[in-house]
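Data availability (excerpt). All sequences and predicted token strings are deposited with the supplementary files. A representative entry, Nucleoside deaminase, is shown inline so that the format can be inspected without opening the archive.
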Amino acid sequence: MAQIEPTEAERGTLARAITRAQGLAKGGHDAPIVAAIMDGDDTIAWGDNEVHLDHDPSRHAEIVAIAAACKHLGRHDLQGHTLVTTLQPCEMCLGAMAFAGIARLVFAAGRPHVGDGYFQFHGLTLDDFAKAADRDFDWAGHVMEDDILRLYAKGDTGADG
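Structure token line:
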């Protein structure tokens, strides 16, 4: 596990995700979280939080993006890909990343600056996840956080990630 510096392409994708999340918030979206999957410098899939659409608590933006990338590639293995997201992934999304083989993460807002309502296992950190992983896990957090934090710094919201 290593903390990393995001690439210029990852920063560009994160900037687009932040703009997209801000648009969702203006449209009244309760949990305006946006994620993307990158293959090198190319963004191959996007996902918006869809929990509210069908009342499905598993449709977090990261899960939606992972599913879209797998469908696009025609396989479930995303080794070598990067997950970029506007909010630090919850425990479920970190697990989905591991199952998909994604070992690189870039996120904007995260703990401790956002309310615990976005997380269920409050004692677990990214370091805990990385230590438990059976492969490398690299991440860059709090990247461009000031650009998006106001959407998520609402205290314990109970909002769906």
